[in-house]
Amino acid sequence: MTEAAPCRIFLVDDHAVFRSGVRAELASEPGLQVVGEAGAVVEAVAAIVRLRPDVVLLDVHMPAGGGVAVLRGVTDAMPDGAPVFLALSVSDAAEDVIATIRAGARGYVTKTIDGRELADAVRRVADGDAVFSPRLAGFVLDSFTGKSSSPEPPLDPELDSLTKRELEVLRLLARGYTYREIADELFISIKTVETHASNVLRKTQQSNRNALTRWAATRHIG
């Protein structure tokens, strides 16, 4: 992000004092601009859809469904491309981290993070990186590889079976992209897209693209 095109940030947290603190911390950081804030799910979804920020800093625990409800509401309302979500939470519980990432967040950091580290995390997710507080990354890796210490099975074995690139292809397919458009977006050949698409269909046990799109929609992928 440059000064001419700053990274536009929206804050979602039900504590106004905390939002004010985050806004003040980010105000001094070059290339970052807080364009709005909200303290409730419905208010947040409406404002995010209207303002179309680049990154949403998202609290996890709020009334009326919390951060996951915001994620799903925005994703449903913006099928042409939702902003990037970075969870900023007091919770470091594995179930909160995994549920938020499953819903579509690109990263998860705790509220113990300092201002400069938070600004760096925002820039990184805006550039396409996944960002986690150090001990939280293990939760996500264990969940996606099925190596969690929990006796429960992975939350979605079919989704977990996809590689990172296959998941990218799946998201674009769910948005209605053609194979050529996916190839251009991911800088790969059409043949490679076809291979990934075939693997996605096989791993998700779907018979065709229409079925795959419906399958993805039920998981809020797109």
From TrEMBL:
GO molecular function: DNA binding
Keywords, ordered alphabetically: DNA-binding, Phosphoprotein
The HTH luxR-type domain, residue ranges: 155-220
BP term (GO), one: phosphorelay signal transduction system
In-chain residues carrying the UniProt-annotated modification 4-aspartylphosphate: 59
Organism of origin: Gordonia rhizosphera NBRC 16068
SMART domains from the UniProt entry: HTH_LUXR, REC
Xref: InterPro entries: CheY-like_superfamily (IPR011006), NreC/VraR/RcsB-like_REC (IPR058245), Sig_transdc_resp-reg_C-effctor (IPR016032), Sig_transdc_resp-reg_receiver (IPR001789), Tscrpt_reg_LuxR_C (IPR000792), WalR-like (IPR039420)
Protein name: Putative two-component response regulator
Domain called Response regulatory: residue spans: 8-126
